[in-house]
């Protein structure tokens, strides 16, 4: 399985943007890049996913490098509710599994 | 709109006891998953069911069995609980395509003493 590498933790101030990097140098052509987050004492929730092009939704933006070996999740204006563990996951087109790594713990300062 | 429902929410077992964790989804999803999450760790896949009638092992299947009872329900059974199985268990479901999102339940916190 292709692996991802994320920083262990990041801090941000409220109402400032947060850029969460993810490296996936062994990504294959059929791997989708998914992001999930897990708020304290809750199950993970979907944030965004993409294949090659940058993606935007109401929660975040996903910027994918041209060679697809890295990506960045962008939270445009962090709120206290965005404090969570963020997981970057590669999901193969032909594989039903969704495998989680350690993720990045995001702390938001008021 | 219930989504993914897990029962029970909390459970304490004695070593050697058995129990079944229940999971049901009302989104007509094809695929369902069981994960465990130990304190301070990420989620690890125990078993998954790509579609009704099929089940496959994940990363940590030892000590567990699963049943895909129908399209809605996917249960996880511990035949002889051990303290090492103390964890939070999450069930998830997805439509099946990797181009769709997975939805997670709120978890079952299991303690084996």
Describe this entry's structure for a reader.
The complex is a heterodimer of chains A (110) and B (113). Chain A has no helices and 9 strands. With 110 residues, chain A is mainly beta. In chain A, the strands form 2 sheets. Chain A has a 5-stranded mixed sheet with strand order 1-9-8-3-4, with no helix packed on it. In chain A, strands 2-7-6-5 form a 4-stranded antiparallel sheet, with no helix packed on it. In chain A, a hairpin with a 5-residue loop joins β6 and β7. The termini of chain A are far apart. The mean pLDDT of chain A is 94. With 113 residues, chain B is mainly β. Chain B has strands at residues 4-7, 10-13, 19-25, 31-37, 43-49, 56-57, 64-68, 74-78, 87-94, 102-104, 108-112. In chain B, the strands form 2 sheets. In chain B, strands 2, 4, 5, 6, 9, 10 and 11 form a 7-stranded mixed sheet that branches. In chain B, strands 1-3-8-7 form a 4-stranded antiparallel sheet, with no helix packed on it. Chain B starts with a strand and ends with a strand. Classes of the chains: A mainly beta (110), B mainly beta (113). At the A-B interface, β3, β4 and β8 of A face β4, β5, β9 and β10 of B.
């Amino acid at each position: 399985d292709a692996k991802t590498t994320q920083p262990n933790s990041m801090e941000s101030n409220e109402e400032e943007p947060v850029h969460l990097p993810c490296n996936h140098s062994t990504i294959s052509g059929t791997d989708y890049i998914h992001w999930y987050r897990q708020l304290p004492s809750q199950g993970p929730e979907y944030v965004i996913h993409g294949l090659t092009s940058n993606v935007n939704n109401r929660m975040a933006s996903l910027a994918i490098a041209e060679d697809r070996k890295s990506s960045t999740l962008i939270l445009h204006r962090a709120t206290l509710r965005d404090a969570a563990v963020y997981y970057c996951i590669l999901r193969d087109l032909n594989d039903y599994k969704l495998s989680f790594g350690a993720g990045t713990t995001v702390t938001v300062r008021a | 709109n219930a989504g993914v429902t897990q029962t029970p929410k909390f459970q304490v077992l004695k070593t050697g006891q058995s129990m079944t964790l229940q999971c049901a989804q009302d989104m007509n999803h094809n695929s369902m998953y069981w994960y465990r999450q130990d304190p301070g760790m990420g989620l690890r896949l125990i078993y998954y069911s790509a579609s009704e009638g099929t089940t496959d092992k994940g990363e940590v299947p030892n000590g567990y069995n699963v049943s895909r009872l129908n399209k809605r329900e996917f249960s996880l059974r511990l035949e002889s609980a051990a303290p090492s199985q103390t964890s939070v268990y999450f069930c998830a479901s997805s439509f099946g395509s990797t181009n769709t999102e997975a939805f997670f339940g709120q978890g079952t916190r299991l303690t084996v003493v």
